[in-house]
Design goal:
The complex is a heterodimer of chains A (about 325) and B (about 250). With about 325 residues, chain A is an alpha+beta fold. Chain A is about 70% helix and about 5% strand. Chain A has two domains: about 200 residues, ABC transporter involved in vitamin B12 uptake, BtuC; about 45 residues, no CATH class. Chain A contains 13 helices and five strands. Chain A has a five-stranded antiparallel β-sheet, with no helix packed on it. In chain A, α4 runs antiparallel to α10. The longest helix of chain A is centred in the last third of the chain and has 28 residues. Chain A is globular. Chain B has a domain of about 170 residues: P-loop containing nucleotide triphosphate hydrolases (Rossmann fold). Chain B contains six helices and ten strands, in the order βββαβββαααβαβββα. A six-stranded mixed β-sheet of chain B has the order 6-7-8-3-9-10, sandwiched between helices. A four-stranded antiparallel β-sheet of chain B has the order 2-1-4-5, covered by helices on one side. In chain B, α3 crosses α4. The termini of chain B are far apart. The C terminus of chain B is likely disordered. The chains are: A alpha+beta (about 325), B alpha/beta (about 250).
């Protein structure tokens, strides 16, 4: 680990990967909440056009790809807001047009598939100091916006109509989310790669939602999971000599599997409801439950469910309902 | 603001969606300390009326003024509370408190996070609707009635002067319905203006001052008494129409 960190290219690689791991889940949280999990993938396709364009014009790939992808993202959101069948078709044309024209332009520029693959799957060890600065600055901007505007972005993701009645500029914030997603995708093209970055926007979020209750908890949890996956993937790829981007994604899937193993039994216990057939109140022979007041129903771990004309409390694996001054055991 | 300026003043609203007329010449006034019910069957245009006066649906004709200001120029959204039908909510694992605290956003500047004062408002609103100890629960784990109460709390956290509610008591158990009706009555006496879509008057009857009944996108009654039945067709022909050969041909 120490000798690994003494190599300058590994230091840059690790920093770039950690930034991707931190930033991608932050914007991914809003993408997932709005059920747009595949958006990142489509934006990755559009960014390939930017890389091809950079090859063709001889400009720096990162700024060209950022600009192309942001323009593409604005087009995506405007098509999506129209919400029609032609809008859906328009998205498909944009995504495949992006990848096809990118590959074509790269070919004309004499770079071919080999030159592109460093951007499709990442090429972490070739990250330059200039790249690192650009990634760092854009990453900080994304973090400031996703955290600072957090309460508003959350309100828009939960209930657009209500957000409008709060006076929030919903269309503008929706546009901001896809633009930030586009920037995230492009700054991660050297670390995880354009075809895989979408995974780092979505999988740490899914992992964190298994482990934490609440949006805020899941938000910061997802960033932690993303950083951990980036660290494991980068270090792991150095030792087993594998592609870094792919290793980061596999590591994040591994963390998701672990979170399932940890959270599964917890969740099952929390959601267990003993089955009771529907019955009119008082018609079924019942025993008196131990006498306790309503207060315990508000403790965590006690589930309250509507059962026909009355309310049942579920706790400790049994289920009972209020009947006058006492509780009926179901 | 002059005391007699209505909080909500909608006049002659015509709304059509996809070429179909949804509202025809609908008006709605709500004053401070007044509770107005909007009644009517499914598809009569109740929800559309509420969504139109909030600017969520564009109208083709008519005018909407909130607190005396044209809707297009209105920005004081912290004075308005809205309780939508809960089916439209998109939450994965947000807690009840998180959902309710978004109601405070209309008081916030753009980059502002909730303060201690905001948290106190949220706690108070949860107390009012009887969800004190549900704050840290995931919203999705609440029963239908509790979700509805949480949405009412979300609207109340902003301390609105005008509260607009779409079937707020749907799915709420009878005991809580009475409690919420009492709460709304109390707030109305304190000067809150209420516009509420209801399927039936139920326990709200004591709170309401006026009833507006919609039928097929038109107002059929606007009185201080209960609703009348909605006729499927407005009775334009004479009662002897079936004897009139000309009318028969026309039909």
């Amino acid at each position: 680990m120490i000798e690994l960190l003494s190599l300058p290219f590994m230091q840059r690689a690790l920093l770039a990967a950690l930034l991707s791991g931190l930033v991608a889940p932050a914007i991914g949280m809003y993408i997932v909440q709005r059920k747009l999990s595949l958006l990142g993938d489509g934006l990755g396709h559009v960014a390939i056009m930017g890389v091809g364009l950079a090859f063709l014009t001889g400009t720096a790939p990162l700024p060209t790809a950022v600009v192309t992808c942001v323009v593409g993202a604005v087009a995506v959101e405007l098509l999506r807001q129209r919400g029609t069948a032609t809008g859906d078709l328009g998205l498909a044309i944009l995504f495949y047009g992006g990848i096809a024209s990118g590959v074509m332009m790269a070919g004309i520029a004499g770079q071919g598939a080999a030159g592109l693959s460093a951007y499709l799957f990442g090429s972490l060890t070739s990250v330059s100091t200039g790249d690192l600065w650009a990634i760092g600055i854009l990453g900080v901007v994304i973090l400031i916006l996703t955290i600072g505007l957090g309460p508003r972005l959350f309100a828009v993701a939960v209930d657009e109509d209500y957000a409008r009645v709060l006076g929030i500029r919903v269309k503008l914030l929706n546009l901001l989310i896809v633009v930030l997603a586009a920037v995230t995708v492009t700054i991660s093209m050297r670390t995880v790669g354009l075809l895989l970055i979408s995974a780092l926007m979505v999988i740490p979020v899914a992992t964190s939602q298994q482990l934490f209750i609440g949006f805020k908890g899941a938000f910061f949890g997802a960033m932690g999971v993303g950083v951990l996956a980036a660290l494991l993937g980068t270090v792991g790829s150095f030792y087993i000599d594998s592609a870094t981007g792919a290793t980061i994604v596999v590591a994040s899937i591994g963390l998701l599997a672990v979170s399932w193993l940890v959270a599964g039994p917890l969740r099952r216990r929390r959601n267990f409801i003993p089955y009771v057939e529907d019955h009119p109140h008082g018609a079924v022979e019942h025993e008196r439950a131990e006498n306790h007041d309503d207060g315990h129903a508000h403790e965590p771990g006690v589930k309250v469910i509507q059962h026909g004309d009355h309310v049942d409390y579920v706790h400790g694996g049994h289920r009972h309902a209020v009947h006058g001054d006492h509780y009926d055991e179901h | 603001m002059a005391d007699n300026t209505p909080l909500l003043d909608a006049q002659g609203l015509y709304v059509s969606l996809g070429g179909l007329p949804i509202l025809r010449d609908v008006g709605l006034q709500v004053h401070s300390g007044e509770a107005v019910a909007i009644l009517g069957g499914n598809g009569s245009g109740k929800s559309t009326t509420l969504r139109t006066v909030l600017g969520l649906i564009p109208f083709q004709e008519g005018s909407v003024r909130l607190f005396g200001t044209e809707l297009a120029n209105f920005h004081a959204w912290d004075r308005v509370g809205y309780v939508p039908q809960h089916s439209s909510l998109n939450v994965s694992n947000a807690t009840v408190r998180e959902i309710v605290s978004s109601g405070r956003l209309s008081h916030h500047r753009v980059f502002q996070w909730p303060s201690r004062q905001d948290r106190a408002h949220v706690t108070h609103a949860l107390d009012l609707v009887g969800l004190t100890d549900r704050g840290r629960w995931p919203f999705v784990d609440l029963s239908g009635g509790q979700k509805q109460r949480a949405l009412i709390a979300r609207a109340l956290t902003s301390e609105p002067e005008l509260l607009i509610m779409d079937e707020p008591l749907a799915g709420v158990d009878l005991h809580s319905q009475a409690g919420l009706a009492g709460l709304l009555g109390q707030l109305r006496s304190d000067g809150l203006g209420l516009a509420v879509v209801l399927h039936e008057q139920g326990p709200m009857a004591d709170v309401l001052d006026r009833w507006v009944t919609l039928c097929d996108g038109r107002i059929v009654t606007s009185e201080t008494q209960g609703a009348t039945d909605c006729a499927p067709e407005p009775a334009k022909t004479s009662s002897m129409g079936w004897l009139d050969p000309v009318a028969g041909v026309r039909r």
